[in-house]
Amino acid sequence: xxxxxxxxxxxxxxxxxxxxxxxxxxxxxxxxxxxxxxxxxxxxxxxxxxxxxxxxxxxxxxxxxxxxxxxxxxxxxxxxxxxxxxxxxxxxxxxxxxxxxxxxxxxxxxxxxxxxxxxxxxxxxxxxxxxxxxxxxxxxxxxxxxxxxxxxxxxxxxxxxxxxxxxxxxxxxxxxxxxxxxxxxxxxxxxxxxxxxxxxxxxxxxxxxxxxxxxxxxxxxxxxxxxxxxxxxxxxxxxxxxxxxxxxxxxxxxxxxxxxxxxxxxxxxxxxxxxxxxxxxxxxxxxxxxxxxxxxxxxxxxxxxxxxxxxxxxxxxxxxxxxxxxxxxxxxxx
Length: 334
Fold this sequence. Notes:
The structure is a single chain. Helices cover 2% and strands 22% of the residues. It is an all-beta fold. A hairpin with a 5-residue loop joins strand 8 (117-121) and strand 9. The two termini are 28 Å apart. The relative contact order is 0.19.
């Protein structure tokens, strides 16, 4: 993302650098405007936001399970792609990771999808990203053997004697640029069952394919982002697949695949996919990681914004304020 530097005088021409007070009329500038008066008699302000939306990752599948897909990720910078939002209170929704494990008495199954994340939920300004797809399962009914669609697609469960199971498609929201990649495709064979399930699709790469040596495929890598800091941070890595006889597929910063135990879970607020489970006993799937929401606005306008009950405002060095939510909360523009 191209960093932007804001000079208050370029926003408000009458801005006095000496006393740091705007003595001129409030007028249309860099996304700030008094439009009139609201129902409470106060001004209606416009604040420009850039955002990075990270949805929850999908869970891996059980029983030689495919890896869960990474949560969909969308990055809109300002001023090129800013979203101007007016005075009011708005819900910021952070998607949960798909739940892994296995309830007592429940047989193998495909992984659960991750939760969507969105900013300004339910308003005309809403923008969303899609939760990661769940991984397929070898022991599940046909409908659950396929990888689930999502921001990042789930990896497919192992194929049978004749054909492979479908992979989960990525970029479920149909966005450009895409919010995530497709899951890996399990192998099929006329000669032997393929127990090598495939990794989930990540924010930056498709999931890897398993093989007939019973090795699970790796999860697709995440996307390196400089939205928050100059040093790239990786988000939305997918889960690796479970395995038969060989080491499981590694996670693409999501959860690695399961071995003789449960698939590994992705970390909180990473949007990573959960690892696929190993053999049916015990072999439960790993959980996907929850998402996170980041917003950026000009530091000059930060006093207009409050966040609750969850949310943090931090100043950056490029003339912007970064606001992030690790769980669902409310943002209010005065």
